[in-house]
Amino acid sequence: MNKLMRIAVDGPSGAGKSTIAKAVAKRLGIDYIDTGAMYRAIGYKMSVEGIDAGDTERLESMLKDTDIDFVRGDIILDGRVVSDVIRTPEMSRAASVCSALPAVRAKLVEIQRGMGAKKSVIMDGRDIGSNVLKDAEYKFFLTASPEERAQRRYEELVGKGEDVTFEQVLADIKERDHRDTTRKLNPLIKTEDAVEIDSTGLSIDEVTEKMIKEIR
Known about the structure:
Elements: E1 6-10, H1 17-28, E2 31-34, H2 35-48, H3 56-64, E3 68-71, E4 74-77, E5 80-81, H4 89-98, H5 102-118, E6 121-125, H6 128-132, E7 138-143, H7 146-159, H8 166-182, E8 195-198, H9 204-215
Helix pairs in contact: 1-9, 2-4, 2-5, 7-8
């Protein structure tokens, strides 16, 4: 593949974006860029270096000195594979905190655009097609009913041994949807040039197939 191919996948929490994006990346032989993992990596570095979210000066200095890349599914932070250490509940919370910091968002968008400029990628998130890769060759908006998304998340959490109810997870999903669509900085929206795919009742393979068909 000589021509660069950039695929943007946006959508609400629990729509299956990362699962589908990984499957599409595998089928097309391109890199999957997990933007959520990038925020986790920054959260991890902040915790290791003891940098508080309010310490703008130290944070900006750290960000200047930060490099993130993806190689064959692994996330590399400053030359070191951190795929496992960032997958903890603490890092999930840290990612949530640092994703609200304008300096962190600006730095990661810069890195993400740089990746898209030098190799074929598929990227998923809340504002990839509307902000990060506005000129992506392919844009998708992946969604599903709140109930279906909550059911998937509920099964995932119960499988990890967490004590939650379906009602709690559904309320959390709805609250997150509201937060994502109403936030001032790059809210979740479906761009006019994005192909919408509703994954309610569809298997991973069926959704992947739909995307591949659109791309081909």
